[in-house]
Amino acid sequence: MNGIAGWVSKNINIDKSTKSISIGKYYAVDGFSAKPIRVVTHIHSDHLMGLKDSLRFSSFIVGTPLTLDLIEEIALQDSESRDLFKAKKKPLNYGEKLEFYDSSLTLLENDHTFGACQILVEVDGVRVGYTGDIKLGGKTRIMKDLDVLIIESTYGSPRYRRPFKQSVQEVLIDTVRYGLRRYGVVHIYGYHGKLQEVMLYLRSNGIEEPFLMPENVFRATRILEKHNVLIGNFHGEREKDSFEQYVLFKHFNQAKYRRIDGSVLNIILTGWEFENPGRKIDEHTWVIALSDHADFDDLITYVEKSDPQIVVIDASRNGEPFELAEELARRGFITFVLPSKGE
């Protein structure tokens, strides 16, 4: 055990400013570090930090085919970055292993968002797994036989439990149906990936009205369709005058500009609701507790089922790493928080 702890201290670093998770000599994950391989676990902006620096320095940009296509379509604005990205991108399917000198990298299934992955690095005879942002259930694979597990801590406090999480989808669908009956038009606000997840929920539950969306959401949805995530009957927002009833999907940041004049029903998707699956915040707006992150109980469940020798908790992003570490230590796990307090 002392040997593994010593290896961790020399070979794993999490940088608070760049958000990079560095593993060994070769791998920088979800942030910039001067390594030959940059791994992107998913499309969300806090995991794309420093990508332009990685394009200049790293030899390969690794991710799932869907994540890399989404980056090229919606995250890179200038032609120089797109050209570099096309030259350096290295798509890996789930379970496919990339050998690099005396190490290997494998991407594993993760239900956090479309195209998301976990990573497994094998180097120096040590197996290191990183969850990225994680959601249990669905296709998520719990990594086992690990020497080191690096895990997120977004909802790492026991305050962040959702005992109702199995009923959220039903509440969401019922609220959309109510909005279509009463208003004819429903506006849904959320992040990339979560919006398309809701589109699939609605389609699979018989809601056939047109889906409208602004250009950036439309482009992301079109990429998903190319990867066999079939939404159907979706259109650009400019076509709204062609339809009497529809559901409009917008980025979460636009919710503060929502219409509350009684012409539409607004639905805001957030993971920061822990009392009820749905809550009315004004006469024409509901907040629905739809999260793509593991809550506190799910994080504990993941670690207990994985049963690694050492747990490293990512404290570089928003979350409660120290409360999670305290609970895991109470349960007998050797746990480090990186970066540690004061770094």
Can you offer a commentary on this structure?
The longest helix has 15 residues. This protein has 343 residues and is α/β, with parallel strands linked by helices. It contains nine helices and 20 strands. It has two domains: 204 residues, Metallo-beta-lactamase, Chain A (4-Layer Sandwich), CATH 3.60.15; 124 residues, 3-Layer(aba) Sandwich (Rossmann fold), CATH 3.40.50.
Q: What is the CATH top level name of the largest domain?
A: Alpha Beta
Provide the domain count: 2
Separation, N- and C-terminal Cα atoms = 25 Å
Give me the CATH fold name of the largest domain.
Answer: Metallo-beta-lactamase, Chain A
Largest sheet: 7 strands, mixed
* The named CATH superfamily of the largest domain: Ribonuclease Z/Hydroxyacylglutathione hydrolase-like
Order of helices and strands: HEEEEHEHHEEEEEEHEHEHEEEEEHEHE
Low-confidence stretches: none
- State the secondary-structure class: alpha/beta
- Give the overall shape, derived from the CA principal axes: globular
Q: What is the overall number of helices?
A: 9
Question: Radius of gyration in whole Å, from Cα?
Answer: 21 Å
Strand order of the largest sheet: 7-8-9-10-11-19-20
Helix content: 25-40%
Mean pLDDT: 95
CATH architecture of the largest domain: 4-Layer Sandwich
Total beta strands = 20
Beta-strand percent range = 25-35%
SSE order and pairing:
Blueprint: H1 2-11, E1 12-14, E2 21-23, E3 27-29, E4 37-39, H2 51-57, E5 60-63, H3 65-75, H4 79-88, E6 89-91, E7 97-100, E8 103-109, E9 117-123, E10 126-130, E11 148-151, H5 168-182, E12 185-190, H6 194-204, E13 211-213, H7 215-226, E14 234-236, E15 246-251, E16 265-269, E17 278-282, E18 285-288, H8 296-306, E19 310-314, H9 321-330, E20 334-338
Parallel strand pairs: 3-4, 4-5, 5-6, 10-11, 11-19, 12-15, 12-16, 13-14, 13-15, 16-18, 19-20
Antiparallel strand pairs: 1-2, 2-3, 7-8, 8-9, 9-10, 17-18
Helix pairs in contact: 3-7
